[in-house]
């Protein structure tokens, strides 16, 4: 691919260029591995030392730190260099993407009653069910399965091997990664003399606009009502979202999180990797759950919440863990001592 | 879809109707969102307050609580309303399902040596290997892969993108959700001078009748013998079951559970979401493991077992976690105090 | 399948045969379920009692324990019986595999610009993108998706439904199990006034030789540089490996492990099932992390590390967990007592 002129970058993305607009860069790179053909960025002041030593041809930097860049390194000065970097990657990826128009592979199996926008792309061996709707500019990769009456919003991209089951819908400008399953049955059974009787899951999944869903992540359909994912939500890989869960706008969850059925999670929350949120809980807006924390009660106050056993060398852990099983008794012994005259 | 007459429901599912048998309902809904066209249910006495305020046209209710329903709300009186609700969802879902006969999509790749029952349905682009057997009334969704000599029991439903590998079998009336992988190699290697030599996994997976397996769940094939899942077992999404595990009849596991190789889990157990069961352990019947608990020893007595770090505001957690790393030393200091005269 | 002569086994795999070379065995079995047509093995001295009672026709055994085998049981004597057993399973599996030559299924969708070795096998409905390279002897199962410019090394086996996305590569002699996703986008977003702006992931995934990757495991592509998996690495099922992670040679991870972005894990490490490794950490060579442990800081010294809440009967756990939330205060009370004259 041809390189990008710095002048072209600032003309498109803004910022003030301190350097030669005709200088070209051929890749985006971190400060410490950048070379003269790279544009880099300083996301946090704590990497300031790397900035001073970088070999990058250009750097995206905040006004206060612009002077730290080495002599000869061009600067793109902007208030939020990390956000600028994000936008630059988008512009860059757009340039890299194959510039062919929309395509509909002949091997795709599209039900005649499905409504597929003329400029949607449908990959090889995709299957689109009866009554499904695929919006303008949507891109469906190889082996995507879209169920009956399911709906894909405009500009949304389903990577290869995504499954969107019957009656489920995702809004506009979404991205779903391979293997994600949207709309499998929620886990519901009534006990019956030692066996389990299935509760058919009659709801669906409704996903807002600008949502990203990671590889092999599962979002179950609701039992009666729907499972609802708000606008701008970002879910990483291998996440489980149970039936009838509600996730508020712009909430983000890292990999391997499990959210049990009917939990209601607010907007602008973050959930660290491997955390577990039990069912039927309420979590208000602006709550941040640390990685691997198990949320067993509702959280009604914004803030950061944690609960992880501190790891240690195995021998130390063994002694402390064994003592932990007597902790309540230790407390009683302490009380007894305190009461001694 | 046409509504259902209350008289038709009790004629099919039993119970005593206190109300007009010609009244029709169009959906099943929770008490708090039900309207006059909804049938609802009271699963637990603790929702009694909701019953008194519901706008539902009809409610499934136990005899002792039937009088709490509002005037004008029809009652279907039954000893176990939750079980009745489960059966109602099944009847309801059956009415909703497309009423076409068995279909075999022309794009499916079926090996000529596979035995497929005449009334089995095979979805688009499914692949069925040599010697596989697909039982009467089985339904295989789009993109299902069934390996050589694998077997699917009568009436079992494999959702789109399920993989059942060579020589593995699932019994009758099962449900497997998208992305589930049955019969991948167990994780077995012999150390060899710092590297790992693969132990080929020569066993298979045998699954009983009436089993449900969640989306993207994995059940590995055995190393020498088989991995065995009993009758009536229910596994949620994203569960890992290692090689040679045995799961007893009617045991249920919630999402994201990990069961390591050769664990033997009894019948009628429940395992909460995100729990981990280490390898080569034995768990007897009627054991209940709480969510996110790590089972590191065999459990030989029925009961409820737990082991989760209690979450807290981050600052409190940090202090307690730091102290926990000195817990054994604290115990010693307490002992020393106790010995003081 | 015809049985294997003991003489044939030692001629191929080495070891000293103490018994009749013309004796045949028909299966490999554990000591306790073996019969006269089985070959078994003694992996650890602690199973010595089983050896004395086994009905196996032949047993693989170390020199020091060979005399413990029952009279009439043939012995294959070797220094490392477990490694010998591993090699025997490989030889056995090779004999079981269908002995047909390489095949290219007519339903596969292979881009004309892809380079596929003549003796590679391509399964039904596989999709191979433009510019992809498939090495000699590689085997791609049904429904495999290989993206544009991706590369599969010689002899590597991709099971059905594996996804290897654009520009990613795996070396020689690898095994990847169904549903694995290699090269989905890493989880990267810049905050922007309460919403998230996507950072396009411009790197790829590079995987060495002799790597095994489990079912539904995900390895994300790098943000700028690549995610790198060393030679001989073994990853079990349902593992999440974030962007820009580096895993050193011959490291093994059990199921359900999560490794957050930019973590650097050394060579010859093991990570137990369900463990979580936070982002941007460094773990040196020869570190062993116990199952379900959460690694929150770098580990710079080889050894075994653990951090799991000990499980208990629920009532005991509840009391200890409640006390744990006051642990720091208890320490202060202990200090106060110690200071008393």
- Rounded mean pLDDT of chain A is 96
Name the helicity range of chain A.
10-25%
- Largest interface: chains, residues each: A-B, 70 and 73 residues
- In CATH, what is the homologous superfamily of the largest domain in chain A? Hexapeptide repeat proteins
> Poorly predicted ranges of chain A (pLDDT <50, ≥5 residues)?
none
**Could you name the CATH class of the largest domain in chain A?**
Mainly Beta
Which structural class should the secondary elements of chain A be placed in? alpha/beta
Total number of strands of chain A: 39
Can you offer a commentary on this structure?
Three copies of one chain form a homotrimer. Chain A is of the alpha/beta class. Chain A has a ten-stranded parallel beta sheet with strand order 8-11-14-17-20-25-28-31-34-37, with no helix packed on it. A ten-stranded parallel beta sheet of chain A has the order 10-13-16-19-24-27-30-33-36-38, with no helix packed on it. The radius of gyration of chain A is 26 Å and the shape is flat. The mean pLDDT of chain A is 96. Strand 38 of chain B pairs antiparallel with strand 39 (312-313) of chain C.
């Amino acid at each position: 691919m041809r390189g990008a002129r710095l002048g072209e970058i600032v003309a498109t993305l803004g910022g003030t260029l301190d350097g030669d607009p005709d200088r070209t860069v051929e890749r985006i790179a971190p400060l410490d591995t950048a070379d003269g053909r790279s544009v880099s960025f300083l996301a946090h002041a704590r990497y300031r030392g790397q900035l001073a030593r970088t070999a990058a041809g250009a750097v995206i930097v905040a006004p206060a730190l612009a002077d730290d860049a080495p002599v000869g390194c061009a600067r793109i000065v902007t208030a939020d260099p990390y956000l600028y970097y994000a936008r630059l990657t988008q512009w860059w990826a757009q340039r890299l993407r194959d510039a062919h128009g929309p395509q509909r592979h002949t091997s795709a199996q599209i039900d005649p009653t499905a409504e597929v926008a003329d400029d949607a792309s449908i990959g090889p061996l995709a299957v689109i069910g009866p009554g499904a709707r695929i919006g303008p500019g949507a891109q469906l990769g190889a082996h995507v399965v879209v169920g009956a009456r399911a709906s894909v919003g405009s500009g949304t991209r389903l990577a290869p091997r995504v499954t969107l089951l019957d009656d489920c819908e995702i809004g506009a400008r979404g991205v779903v990664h391979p293997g994600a399953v949207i709309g499998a049955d929620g886990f519901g059974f009534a006990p019956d003399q030692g066996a389990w009787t299935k509760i058919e899951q009659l709801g669906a999944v409704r996903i807002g606009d600008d949502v990203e869903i990671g590889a092999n992540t599962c979002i179950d359909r609701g039992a009666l009502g729907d499972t609802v994912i708000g606008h701008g939500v970002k879910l990483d890989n291998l996440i489980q979202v149970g039936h009838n869960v509600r996730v508020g706008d712009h909430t983000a969850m890292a990999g391997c999180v499990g959210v049990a059925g009917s939990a209601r999670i607010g907007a602008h929350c973050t959930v660290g990797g491997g955390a577990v949120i039990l069912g039927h809980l309420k979590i208000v807006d602006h709550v941040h759950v640390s990685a691997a924390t198990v949320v067993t009660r509702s959280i009604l106050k914004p803030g950061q919440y944690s609960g992880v056993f501190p790891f240690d060398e195995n021998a130390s852990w063994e002694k402390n863990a064994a003592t932990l099983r007597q902790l309540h008794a230790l407390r009683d012994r302490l009380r007894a001592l305190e009461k001694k005259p």
